[in-house]
Amino acid sequence: MTPSELSRTVVRVVRSAVHEGALGPAPVADLAVKVERPRPGGRGDYASGIALKLAAAAGLPPRRVAEVLRERIAGQPGIALVEISGPGFLNITLDRAAHNDVVRQVREAGLRYGYGDAFRGEGFVFAARAEERARIVVEVVARLLVAQGAHARVVEQGGADLPVAGCPVPGLAGLVGADAARWAMLRAARHDRPRTDVEELLAQRESNSLFRVRYAYSRSRALTRNAAELGFASEAGPVPEGEALLVLLGDHPAVLEGAARHHAPDRLARHLEAVADDLLHFQHQVLPLGDEKPSAAHRSRLALAEAAGTVLAGGLSLLGIDAPELL
To answer: Taken in order 62, 67, 73, 78, is the CA torsion positive or negative?
Structure first.
């Protein structure tokens, strides 16, 4: 279950509770529910403050609203546990099957995993920019919005002016290559100056974040080739050792939506870094060691690694950056 799916589940629960009279006249026509990772010290996989948002309209204390919703959310498919914390926050834990379903979703959607319809029917027109970094950022913002169902385009005359801090090194692409320059310009928030250390942008080492992302993708492809040589292929299934990576993949749709909503390609770039780092840590558990025979666990781990590679390739594609299979 992805954050977007969980949000829709909570929306359905709220509407049902209002229809049954359990939440009074709380407005639900244009209801939007935000779920996010719990803050440090929080419990569960996701948290939502929807009960606090509805309390005044319902004429009930926030914790009472939270209790009404807790009972109903806990009975939904894919939900293992719902707890209430603080003044009325809902802490939601998914069951393991819901986590494992993420791999199936990635395999089915391919490079379009995480695309959605949050902005379906909405139109965005941005002004073309002459400055190198601004031009790239505006182009990618439009692409992110299209991936979320919007009609977005960049025009030479008219259109909204998207503020972007310029690149301090003119012609950066000519010094480090188009992909490295794009990454540097998109990795920094729009209002921040990008890092333009030419030597670091060209370095094929761990300190170079683009190298880590591309290397992680190439490793995912190498694992598939190595597994074929050993006579087995991937198969989606439980992967207890890959919980952190599964969570990151499950967060990907929400990251894409957030990057589009806030016109912030840097959110996607940082997410790809996190996926890459976890995949590089996880990769050593995928293939059999020594005389060990391939098992169902190896097939499931390979499926997870392949799904992570797909997310990396799809994310880089949205940023307009190539994902080479060999580095």
So the answer is: positive
